[in-house]
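WARN retry 2 of 3 for item q-0093 after timeout on previous attempt; input resubmitted unchanged.
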Amino acid sequence: MKGKHIGSALLVTLSLVLTVTMAMAGAMPVGALMGSKDATVDGQAPLPHTTLMSGDSLQVKNGLAMLALDQGNRMILGRQTQASFLREADAVTVSLTRGNLSLYHPQTVSSFRIKAGDVTVSPAKGYKTLGQVAMADGFLAVSAKEGALQVEKSGAVQQVAQGKTITISTDAASAPVPGPQGRGKPHLKRVPAAVWIALGVAAGTGFVAWAIVNATSGGGQAVSPVNPAP
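OK item q-0093 returned
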């Protein structure tokens, strides 16, 4: 009888340990929200330097939000943007539902990837990278301002070199529009004007990102993502 009680107690203890372990695994930090304007995390207005956890959802209305990820990786989400975050074994995944973002990767070991439907965008290895990603009407525009970005869809991979921009349909797109295609590359399409507008917004956000990167990495005074210094 005593042995049964001990066995039951062990089972309860193991169950509690497993529950706590699973809860901790599902709540791993992915980064920090360094500053924001008109943004919410899981529907709540955040404070500066709020820790973002795996599973959190960030929505920006008519402002912007600056994120600090591992090892100096940074990201700024622009107006009308929604994204969620997941820490996986090899990298942080940012799932972009709509809107635009600017990204900075300082050529470190730690990286991240952006998923928009069936398209994945990540900094190319070996480069310090500054780029923009904009999503609208089922299309994605990817622009590399410095360094290079890697775009993958259905196993096909294309590298976006510095100064280049590509557009690609996501699985949320309507019927395909004829356009140039390349062997072993994602299919490129003619793109609605809404995507170029979104990319223009992302580019504007990118200037703010670049100012922040220069200020923080150069040892100068950090620039506010909401009120950048002149």
